[in-house]
C-alpha cells in the first residue's frame, strides 16, 4: 500500500490557511482537526472554514471530527467539501449508519479511536470503513509527545485488516515526526498525520518529502507489507 502524508493544519497559521495549504501541495491530504470544546478541551474550526479551505486548495481534505454528536454533524462536512470524514467511536451513537451515510454522500468514511479505546470490539465494523485512525496522543492539542504504547495496538489493527482481507487505510495521528514515523510504518500504519513536524519546519514541503521517504523505507522492510 502506498504511504500517505497528511499535514495537519492544527499546526499551521490560521490567519494564512490558504497559503499554508499551498505550502504542502505535495501532500496526499490536508488534515483538518475539528474540535468543539466538549468532546475535547479545545475549540478550533467548523463547517464555514472547511468550505473556504476546500475552495482554496486542490489537496483533498481529511476532516477529523473531535466533536460530540458526529451523527448529526459529520454529513455537513462532506457537503462542505471534505473528501474523507473521521468520527470518533467514543462519540458516535450509530457508527455503521453514520459510516454508510458519509459514503453515500460521496466521501471516505473513517473512524478514530482514542488511546484507551481498544480496536477489538470494533472488528465487525471494519468492512464499513475506508480508514481507521489510531490516536497516538490524547486528542485535543497539537505538539504532544508520541505514545509508544500505541505501537502494539497498531500492529493488532493491521492483523485484523489482514485477517479480513480489507483494503482499509490505517492512519496514525499524534506526535508523528522524523523520529517516530518509521516505528509507526513498521507496526502497520500507512497514512500519517503530521502537524508540528511539517508546519514547524522551515520548508514544509521538504518536511513532507522527508517523512514520506522515511515511511516508505520502513514500510518496504516491514513484515506486514511483505506479506500483503
From TrEMBL:
| The name this protein goes by in its record | Ribulose-phosphate 3-epimerase
Chain positions recorded as substrate binding sites: 8, 64, 140-143, 173-175, 195-196
Cofactors (names): Co(2+); Fe(2+); Zn(2+); a divalent metal cation
> So where's the catalytic machinery, residue-wise?
33 (proton acceptor), 173 (proton donor)
Any idea which positions bind a divalent metal cation? 31, 33, 64, 173
EC number(s) on record?
5.1.3.1
Annotated function: Catalyzes the reversible epimerization of D-ribulose 5-phosphate to D-xylulose 5-phosphate.
What keywords are assigned to this protein? Carbohydrate metabolism, Isomerase, Metal-binding
Which family does this protein fall into?
Belongs to the ribulose-phosphate 3-epimerase family.
Catalytically driven reaction(s): D-ribulose 5-phosphate = D-xylulose 5-phosphate
- Cofactor binding summary note: Binds 1 divalent metal cation per subunit.
Q: In which pathway does it act?
A: Carbohydrate degradation
Enzyme class, UniProt record, top EC level: isomerase
Q: Specify whether Cell membrane is a keyword of the entry.
A: no
InterPro entries reported in the protein's UniProt record? Aldolase_TIM (IPR013785), Ribul_P_3_epim (IPR026019), Ribul_P_3_epim-like (IPR000056), RibuloseP-bd_barrel (IPR011060)
